[in-house]
Amino acid sequence: MRSKDVLADGFGRIEGLVRSVVEGADEALLTRRVGREANTVAWLVWHIARVQDAQVAPLAGTEQVWTARGWAQRFGLPFDDEANGYGQSPDEAARVVASPADLLGYLHDATAATLAYVATLSDEDLDEVVDEAWDPPVTRGVRLVSILADVLEHAGQAAYVRGVLES
């Protein structure tokens, strides 16, 4: 198995994990919190897609699907198009309201773009340094693993939140 195949397998699991959290939920469940400042399922799922999209698009040299495919307009969130959830306050996170279909649709498009990009990579591409601001510098492969770890962590959080809300 090649390195890009391992990455593709990992990114390919995200949609199924998130789908099991979102399907059958209504907007009320998706926007409820388990605590006053806790993230909602809607915010977590939106953030999963945004993180993947906002970080993979620059690596791929493409426009984010958030804007290119009209998701920013469809969601109509009160944030700049560049917002992806990092550094948002609990009040800002609570403003993410979306239907299950939109959350899953955007995640699907973001994941498809990621998988299309990963399919083009060689092992040499994965060794290329893409960020020298860190010590050691970050390679393309390390950045992709970091993105994958982040979105999988948030998928687990979303599943936990839904489970708590339904218990």
Question: Which secondary structure elements does this structure contain, and how are they paired or packed?
Answer:
Blueprint: H1 3-22, H2 27-31, H3 41-60, H4 65-68, H5 71-75, H6 90-93, H7 100-119, H8 123-127, E1 129-131, E2 138-139, H9 140-166
Antiparallel strand pairs: 1-2
Helix pairs in contact: 1-7, 1-9, 3-7, 3-9
In a nutshell, what does this entry contain?
By secondary structure, this protein is mostly helical. The chain has helices spanning 3-22, 27-31, 41-60, 65-68, 71-75, 90-93, 100-119, 123-127, 140-166; strands at residues 129-131, 138-139. It holds the Pfam family MST.
Features:
single chain; 167 residues; mainly alpha; Four Helix Bundle (Hemerythrin (Met), subunit A); two-stranded antiparallel ribbon; 66% helix; globular
What value does the Rg take, in angstroms? Answer: 16 Å
Question: Number of folding domains?
Answer: 1
Q: Quick one: overall form?
A: globular
Q: Provide the CATH superfamily.
A: dinb family like domain
Structure overview:
A hairpin with a 6-residue loop joins strand 1 and strand 2. This protein has nine helices and two strands. By secondary structure, it is mostly helical. It has a single domain, classed as Up-down Bundle (Four Helix Bundle (Hemerythrin (Met), subunit A)). The protein has a two-stranded antiparallel sheet.
